[in-house]
Fold:
Amino acid sequence: MSFGDRPNILWIVSEDCPPRFGCYGDSLAETPNLDRLARDGVVFDHAFSVAPVCAPSRFALLTGLGPESHAPANHMRADAPMPPWLRTYPEILRERGYYCTNNAKTDYNADVDPDAIWAESSRNAHWRNRSPGDPFLAVFNFDGTHESSVFPRTKPSLDPALVRIPAYLPDTPEIRADIARYYDRIAEMDAFVGSLLAQLDEDGLTDSTIVIQTSDHGGVNPRSKRFCYDEGLRVPLIIRAPQRYAELFPPTGSRVQAAVTTDRIPATLIELAGASPPAHLHGRSLTHADLDPATSLAFGGRGRMDERYDLIRTVRDQRYRYIRNYLPHRPYGQHQPFAWLAAGYQSWETEHLAGRLNEAQSAFWNTKPGVELYDLHTDPDEVHNLAGNPDYADVEKRLAGALRTHILAVHDNGFLPEGSPHEGYDASREPGVYPLDRVLDIADAVAQQEPGSVAAFHTALADTDATVRRWAAIGILASGASDDTTLTLLDAVTATEPDPFVMIPCAEALARHRNNPDDVRRLVDFADPAQPRPIRLEALAALTALPIARLHEHRAAIAASADPNGGYVSGAARYLLARIDGTYTPSMILFTAPPEMLKHAAQFGPAASQMLARLQGATPDPAQ
Structure:
């Protein structure tokens, strides 16, 4: 391909959209346009996002850099500062003469000015606005498949009796309706794709335009978005190349079985434009790629999701998924007010509180195993954990080693507390400030949950590095150690430790195992409005994990965090107040849109924007 024969590129991104398409084997889906695109292109059967939620994933889609390498981009709704050297793919393509448009969502999780990197970024952005003859890259985001699209209890076109209920969910009318309702949204997205393809035909551009269709992550039903299973990370990926560019990709009509991640798309776009991808890009181009299923791996993970901290890392090959839960003492199902607007979450928790769930359905509401391993060929719902099974020891060892190597190679910032001065690609790599190998030794011991680890945690509590000490404290908390030696050591640490991110897990561990009011009071003080948001969120998570009877005397102090104007701290505090008051029910609306979400509301599309406006005036105030 010569510089003068560069392709046009149409990239269609559907929000929160798993591959529930006909071309991916879903017989209930009405997706004729996507199916035709698949027949004329290449289908990637094992494509994954790097994060199971939009903002961190979209950071990777823009930069080609994993969000975990440049904290706080790894957390949901952050504003990571962009170093001058970190250039985005539209900037590089515009230098190559491309007319680059974005219609319209950004949500890049970084301090990026869309007007500076795009020729157009709006709901009017279109390749038709370019000068005649200029090559174009046109990105169209379809927001109709966003999670919020299932919140209204509209009647689905599909009979809910026909949908399949995953083994981890109870079979309730609400869950069936949510799943059925989403098929309507996928059909709308398919029509949107068909409209764009028809416009290419009308403009005589089909034979000169490469079309890419994917999603920012999976979703949207319970235990999908936000979680590091296939339902949260697996996405569609279809690439259709005209005959003149077909040799760049696998043969037309083929299906790629290798595991790939969508952070490879930026490098692909840059190569298609005739430029060389920058060295810092994690994802390698999909053009002329080695797509060997036997060696390809897809890495992913999550950090804070709205109000709730967790730290999970995962690796997937063509058959197995390996997961490490670095905060195993926290349940999967930490309450998140926005997610709980869905009838599915409300129904699932209602069944949980009523004691009507089986073991697989109950797991979400319990603390986590430190390690998970699933065979997707025999267990597509990922409910039978094979970790520790001697028959799969070689698989577990191979994937565990690959994950650790990857974490070190990308200098994963996720083990730093949010707000640390050492967050960021450059700051975290300053000599001596973030000894990731030592941090990971302790954090891996937290996830591994071996009996002998507590002694190592004791020793690490005296480390000179605060992040090592933090993970030692988390290790003691997660282990449940309550012997006199451990409690005496924690007492000594809380008397002298200057770092609140070490203090909070120490105080929580003490509060869990003795009835000293000073332990709870420390956590309440860290939740005070004068503290930075990350400290308050961690303190509120610790308080939420304690017996509610221990918190009644602190109700007024906790209510000070329940700002009726919204925010993530407010959401966590309002939930905790409802629990203290005994008024909580799963259908209780505790969501108020935080400023970080309102900043992007105009990009969500009319339906989601109207929903946010309605909710802003409909939220009860348990602080009163």
Summary: The first strand starts at residue 8 and ends at 14.
